[in-house]
Write a structure and sequence with these properties.
By secondary structure, the protein is mainly alpha-helical. It is built from 23 helices and 14 strands. The strands form six sheets. The chain has a three-stranded parallel sheet. A three-stranded antiparallel sheet has the order 5-6-7, with no helix packed on it. The protein is elongated. The N terminus is likely disordered.
């Protein structure tokens, strides 16, 4: 879905050069970079720390970088080869046991070892790092991203980083001058950019470097347990770098031109950029995106497992809705919790429908153009997610067949076979209702004035023909609501009649369905059926009688 498959056309260039959409703004940075430093291939990169299970923030980096990559291809008329590297820092030593894994007891004895040397608590892969890498790749593959996966462990042990590691050793003092001012006094006294991997225990050691020999390509340290001096080559996976020097080394070794990072890493990006220059490289372009927050406003953490997992979003909503969430306002902090899902499902459809009515410039500003790499599908969703959720709530539907009964009556000829995406949406709605809506359902009793209004609404609906349209039903709902306390004297209807306050519609959902809000009530009745709605009103009046 997100792969840059459609070839850009030169006709888009003038529009793309003027577009204010953030992927184009980012892509223009890379175009300028190429003018300063010409090369045949542009490398985009994203980094992943597999100490915890992959979460949506990880996906967000790849999704957003892919959008910038496609925008760059348009701006360069697809004349510059591009690659996207999804890099896993799986050689990092595991510092603590994550909260959200099984079999924690098998992890504890291996703390400090590279993630690819820690047993897999899930029992599915040779190591914990490989398990989490597989989870990441499976998800990215499910979305159809075009990327190359790289493992830090594989790169270190295969010698891919050896040349830059030796250069780092040659410029050891310059790197130390950059790093030491950023460290606390106590840590500065023992800091070294190189971390030896203990040949005896396999642990990544946080120890001072007693001596370094650039000509021999070695460092010397004291084994913290045996107190023996050990001299080891820095190459071949026998050492790894502290993460800021490691980041800079990777940029140079892989020739990275673009990599974004979270706002919490602004200072780290600057330091790594300085080290990159000290190694003779040029730091990549990029920007700092805001962090995702959980329900309580706390930063999402892989180790804590707060927020939403990759699998959870896809249980309740379409992949496209998640891509929309990632596209929107990347430099603003956003809550990433379950209650944001329904809105993004329906707003994706609204953008898709709006795309058909837009011209070229407007289309390049539409999120779906970036989500689908310039080729959004034709919209074909005859019913909203909000409507499906309300139908499930009103009918207590436990299966898709019940919902399809309502849909088939409302939209004759629409079936699971003709509309597979709607069929998927039906499944999402049932899952979301069971897990989030049903436990929170709280019916409130109507006041005397509300009881009278509901009784009048019931009678008015009973006078309508069964085939009444959603608009005809909505007109009746408005007419019945034109009474105190629901009159909105500040806002008149188009026909000159008094306006109706939102409280009228909120009351209908609170009393009839036990939820705070819902879709347009006339449309809901048209789908649910006038007879079913009358029975629902009768039930509410009986409960509160």
């Amino acid at each position: 879905m997100n792969t840059p498959e459609s070839p850009p056309t030169s006709a888009l260039l003038p529009l793309a050069e003027q577009s204010n959409a953030w992927p184009f703004e980012e892509a223009r940075k890379i175009v300028s970079r190429l003018k300063r430093m010409p090369k045949d291939e542009v490398i985009f990169s994203t980094g992943y720390g597999p100490s915890g299970l992959p979460h949506i923030g990880t996906f967000g980096e790849v999704a957003r970088t892919t959008m910038v990559r496609h925008a760059f291809r348009v701006l360069t008329d697809d004349k510059v080869n591009t690659r996207l590297i999804a890099f896993s820092d799986d050689m990092d030593g595991l510092r603590k046991v994550p909260d959200n894994i099984p079999n924690k007891e098998i992890i504890e004895p291996h703390l400090g070892k590279p993630l690819t040397k820690v047993p897999d608590p899930f029992g599915t892969h040779p190591s914990f790092g490989e398990h989490n890498n597989a989870r990441l790749r499976a998800f990215l593959d499910q979305f159809g991203f075009e990327y190359e996966f790289m493992s830090s462990t594989a790169c270190y042990t295969a010698g891919r980083f050896d040349a830059i590691l030796l250069r780092m050793l040659e410029r050891f003092d310059a790197v130390m001058e950059i790093m030491l001012p950023s460290l606390r006094e106590e840590r500065a006294q023992t800091y070294s950019p190189f971390l030896p991997v203990c040949p005896r225990t396999g642990v990544v050691l946080q120890v001072p470097v007693i001596a370094h020999d650039a000509k021999a390509g070695t460092i010397t340290y004291e084994d913290p347990e045996t107190k023996e001096r050990v001299t080891t080559p820095v190459t071949g996976g026998r050492t790894k770098l502290q993460w800021k020097p490691d980041w800079a080394m990777r940029w140079v070794a892989l020739g990275v031109d673009y990599e974004m990072a979270g706002k919490d890493l602004i200072d780290s990006v600057k330091l790594s950029g300085e080290i990159c220059r000290a190694l003779g490289g040029a730091p990549p372009e990029g920007f700092n995106y805001e962090l995702f927050l959980d329900q309580g406003g706390q930063k999402i953490s892989k180790s804590k497992g707060n927020g939403i997992t990759i699998e959870e979003w896809l249980r309740y909503a379409s992949p496209e809705s998640l891509s929309l969430f990632m596209y929107r306002e990347p430099k603003s902090a956003k809550r990433l919790y379950f209650d944001v899902i329904p809105r993004h499902v329906d707003e994706y459809q609204q953008h898709l429908e709006g795309y058909q009515r837009q011209d070229g410039k407007q289309r390049l500003a539409n999120p779906v153009w970036h989500i689908h790499a310039g080729n959004p599908p034709v919209p074909d969703m005859p019913i909203t997610f909000a409507m499906l959720l309300t139908l499930v709530a009103s009918s207590n539907a436990e299966n898709a067949e019940t919902l399809w009964g309502f849909i088939g009556r409302y939209r004759p000829g629409v079936t699971p076979k003709t509309h597979p995406k709607l069929d998927a949406l039906v499944g999402y709605a049932i899952h979301f209702f069971r897990d989030f809506v049903l436990p929170e359902k709280k019916y409130r009793a109507p006041t005397e004035a509300e009881r009278a209004a509901l009784s009048d609404l019931r009678d008015a609906l009973s006078q309508l023909p069964k085939e009444a349209t959603a608009e005809q039903i909505q007109d009746v709902v408005y007419d019945i609501g034109r009474r105190e306390p629901f009159l909105d004297h500040k806002k008149a209807a188009k026909d000159g009649k008094p306006g109706v306050a939102l409280d009228w519609f909120n009351m209908l959902y609170q009393v009839l369905l036990g939820q705070e809000k819902g879709p347009r009530f006339g449309s809901f009745v048209a789908v649910y059926g006038i007879g079913n709605t009358i029975e629902m009103i009768d039930g509410a009046l009986a409960r509160s009688g």
